[in-house]
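Objective 1b: paired records.
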Amino acid sequence: MAMSQPVSVMKGRPNARLPPEVNRVLFVRNLPFKISADEMYELFGKYGPIRQIRMGSSKATVGTAFVVYDDIFDAKNACDHLSGFSIKDRYLIVLYHQTSKQLKKTDLDAKEQEVSDLKRQRDSMS
């Protein structure tokens, strides 16, 4: 009876621990505004199967994208190799998406609203 091995060993990777910020979702900034989805898949697909790419389309988000890999090791490899990569005279900034930062911003907005409400209450009482 054969013993099952961890997934990381089965894929030919050493059983190494990754830093906590590493995840399957990459946030990409400083993209050329005219880059196509096909070019994105071609560039990021070199590092492994991609589940999804979401490119910014509004004025505030153009030049950014989220790239979701099937495997966390592929995402790490892409982040390591594509950070600082030059495409169409732009240097890419590739980071791991961190939901905790987004949650902290939401909490901060709520706290600011709460303080504003308390100030209005105090001013109306005086």
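Objective 1b, second protein:
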Amino acid sequence: MTEPGSSFQFGVDRQTGLATIHEFMTLEAEIDARCRSNGDGDAYGIVLVDIEGLRAINANYGFDFGDQVLVEIARRLRTMFDELRPRCVARVGGDEFGVLVDGIEASRNLSQLARKIRLDAVGYPLLIGVTRIRIRLRTTFRRGPSRKPVASDLLWEVQWADRIEATRELHQRLEALEQRDGQLAGQAADLRERLASAEQRATLGLYDDLTGLRNRRGLNDVLPTVLGPRVVLFVDVDNLRELNGLDDQNWEAGDQALAGVARLLQTLPPGTIVGRWGGDEFLVIVPGADTVAIVDELEALIRCARSELHFGDLEVTFSAGLAVARGPADQRDAQAAARGAAKTAKASGRARVVVADQEAWPESRPGRSRH
């Protein structure tokens, strides 16, 4: 969902019809950069919408029922806004939606928007088939740009705050139930299970649930500890959209492909840091500056993916971009260069490696793709 007249084109989440987390974060980064460069109080904000109890709904009614709940909440979010129309509404997690608002005047506007979402999106029961069900939403919001001196991912900050708040609320509700002489032992047991899950999410908030790798927040947390030269890689799964579009797989093929590529990348040299940057992208940091060896290993992994990861006649491939950072001060520029090189690799035929730095590739190896 975009603001009328916006030139920004979104990828679409196949299940809900909303924007994807990748497109949401791309637009957020553009707005954050504009607000920081203006320096005149220009601001934006994010409201995170979290469906509480979706796991219980899946357990009690089945996953098809839970999917219909997601689709209905997405439909209501897509149609409920009039004033303070958001720039983007996206699915940013299994049971989470993000609402990105540009040009807000004050934090109270975000508070009003969060309240409106809670009232309008679940103010009346959802009718799924012949079953009426009431849904509870938790909303968390943050105003940007943040006070950090450099650009930050406000979405990750909001998701982290949401997880902490969910843990606090469950603690309070569990304590209240336990004080009632065990009369509601069943509800207390259910809350304990939900609390354990929420605490795990908060504890593992630096890791991606699907692949087990560090997520973007986790990568940003560990990168400052990396000293000395390093090879920076962006790896982009070439055909994730086609895999997700396999009707009889229900996204399982795409998930298995991402997990498979993650396993392959973890076979890179010891000391390598591998993380899921978001969507179909991985960020990899390899200590040292031996680009020749790294490119050879990547190309071997691409061949391995083709032979081991396939669904019917559809092979899984990935493209990679490579750049060298001489130290921590070069990390951000190297990431941008490597990401651009990965996009070039994908656009120029897929299943290949492109080296961003001319100096990083020896003239004795002229056959390698470079730009």
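The first strand starts at residue 44 and ends at 52. The chain has two domains: 21-203, 216-360.
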